[in-house]
Write a structure and sequence with these properties.
Layout (H helix, E strand, L loop, with lengths): L1 E5 L6 H12 L3 E3 H11 L2 H12 L5 H12 L8 E4 L5 H10 L4 E6 L2 H9 L1 E3 L6 E3 L26 H15 L1 H8 L3 E5 L4 H16 L1
Parallel strand pairs: 1-3, 1-4, 2-3, 4-7
Antiparallel strand pairs: 5-6
Bound molecules: BIS(adenosine)-5'-pentaphosphate.
Length: 212
């Protein structure tokens, strides 16, 4: 099963991809997480993409496509994967098509102002990747990860000004892919305005219908 979890910044792609990955036992492949890791480790790729992430701009297609090709060739992705944050441009979508056949694109639909609130209130655990929200999904103890006990941090690009820039980039470069996949009959809209569990239930329902 090869799925794309699609949607604007902070729609809940990562949150849902983590839950779906556990339920269906296929890996979450998040370009954002892979790029942030590369930046934190100071790898050659990390040095090339650092300024893009800081400014809320998209990294170059060729680098991102190579990153994806490398990740999905790993043994744990043999039975499928969940792409989270890829593809994000028409060029990436075309490259993905050359690589494989995607089964389904789950498009999370959320109102703009709600997206800003979700992004600005997000806190994450750099150690194990858990994602929280100060209001909608708070950790049990303030700024401490429930799972590993490590300190939570706010992402650099979650400052309001950068969030708005990311939303603009999404509208210009990524949103056109919605019609592209809809015309292919691969895209299903998911109402992302409800709580995390309600959104998850819609996704599971859609995936299970596909599997039948
Ligand atoms: P990336 O990390 O992919 O950022 P994004 O698309 O902006 O998505 P986010 O991680 O912000 O949000 P999300 O949708 O995963 O939401 P989450 O589940 O965390 O990319 C970062 C950067 O990397 C890009 O700007 C770019 O520079 C680069 N990049 C990445 N991919 C690239 C590509 N393919 N090409 C080129 N460049 C690329 O949820 C958000 C918050 O809301 C959390 O606090 C969560 O707890 C809360 N929440 C989630 N669901 C709900 C709900 N239903 N109700 C209430 N709160 C909720």
């Amino acid at each position: 099963m090869k799925l794309v979890i699609f949607g604007p910044p902070s729609a809940g792609k990562g949150t849902q991809a983590q839950k779906l990955s556990q339920k269906y036992n296929i890996p979450q492949v998040s370009t954002g997480d892979l790029l942030r890791k590369a930046v934190a480790e100071g790898t050659p790729l990390g040095k090339k993409v650092k300024s893009y992430l800081e400014q809320g701009k998209l990294g170059p297609d060729n680098l991102i496509v190579e990153l994806i090709k490398d990740r999905v060739s790993k043994p744990d992705a043999r039975n499928g994967y969940l792409l989270d944050g890829f593809p994000r441009t028409m060029g990436q979508a075309k490259e993905l098509e050359k690589m494989t056949d995607i089964d389904l694109v789950l498009n999370i639909v959320v109102d703009m102002e709600m997206l800003v609130e979700r992004a600005v209130g997000r806190r994450g655990c750099p150690k194990d990747g858990s994602v929280y929200h100060i209001k909608f999904n708070p950790p049990k103890k303030d700024m401490v990860c429930d799972k590993c006990g490590g300190p939570l941090v706010q992402r650099e690009d979650d400052k309001e000004e950068t969030v708005r820039k990311r939303l603009q980039v999404y509208q210009e470069q990524t949103a056109p892919l919605i019609e592209y996949y809809r015309k292919k009959g691969k895209l299903v809209d998911i109402d992302g305005s409800g709580g995390i569990d309600a959104v998850f239930a819609q996704m599971v329902n859609t995936i299970d219908k596909l599997k039948k």
